[in-house]
Amino acid sequence: MNFKFYNDVSFKVSDLITKSYSTSFSLAINVFDKELRDSISSIYGYVRLADEIVDSFHDFEKQNLLNELREETYSAIRNGISLNPIIQSFQTTVNKYDISIDYINNFIDSMEMDLSNTYYDRENYDKYIYGSAEVVGLMCLKVFCYKEDELFNSLIPSAKALGSAFQKVNFLRDIKSDLDERGRIYLPGASTSMEINNENKLLLEEEIEKEFKEALSGIKRLPGSSRLGVYSAYLYYYMLFKKIRSLKINDLFKKRVRISNFTKISLLAKSLIDTKVIKAI
């Protein structure tokens, strides 16, 4: 046995986390090149770990756990090793692709915001979205644009828009569980359950539509090694968004909107066809 074996196992743990928590993302990630697949899974696994601390570990001191996560992450990046397999695979990706420490810091800062906030005014909402979603898009973009700094810089707005759109669609999809189970509202303009209405929903949907448009323009310019996977995730979320947009706010409190596995596979096939057309153009 050697260090490489441990490192490989660590990436497999992150891959297991990805497959266990999200069938839609795991389908998209599976069409990446092997190296990209491992790296993106390591980012997802790390983000999922932080999310679980905030959303699920109710019997533990969440702030202490986030502090420990932050400290261990920084230590692992400096030293190139962690005894936590998820952090180990993440730090390997961070160091290889030169992912900014600021992104990680902003991400954990946003996770901490959820410990004390039940709703967000516009300023803090935008700050939260940047740290919880946009920087994740930028981390992934660093992987996609390896050693292509000019391309990376030109795609920053699109990557941020895609991360933001995904997160806001999740907010609408999970509006009932966020309120009932976590006591949180992620709808700008709403500070109480009484202020959750169709007008606020429509305003957020208008933001999301613009972000999807911005994101698509960037997806078309991604390297071929990542374009198919990102585009398939885009199609999945855009279909989810269309289903949510067709419903009233009260409908979202009655059921969680889902996309069937058959439809997910169909979208993946459509992605393959569409990206071939994009490449030909």
Walk me through what this model shows.
- The structure is a single chain.
- It contains 13 helices and no strands.
- It has 281 residues and is mainly α.
- The mean pLDDT is 91.
Question: What's the CATH class, please?
Answer: Mainly Alpha
Find the CATH topology: Farnesyl Diphosphate Synthase
The count of strands amounts to: 0
Write down the Rg. Answer: 19 Å
Judged by helices, strands and strand pairing, the structural class is mainly alpha
Instruction: Provide the domain count.
Output: 1
> Helical amount among residues, as a percent range?
over 70%
On the 0-100 scale, what is the average pLDDT?
91
Task: Please give a quick description of this structure.
The chain is an all-alpha fold and 281 residues long. It has 13 helices and no strands. It has helices at residues 3-21, 23-30, 34-55, 62-79, 85-97, 101-116, 122-144, 149-173, 175-182, 198-219, 224-245, 249-252, 261-280.
How do the helices and strands line up, and which of them pair or pack?
Blueprint: H1 3-21, H2 23-30, H3 34-55, H4 62-79, H5 85-97, H6 101-116, H7 122-144, H8 149-173, H9 175-182, H10 198-219, H11 224-245, H12 249-252, H13 261-280
Helix pairs in contact: 1-2, 1-3, 1-5, 2-11, 2-13, 3-5, 3-6, 3-7, 4-5, 4-6, 6-7, 7-8, 8-10, 8-11, 10-11, 11-13
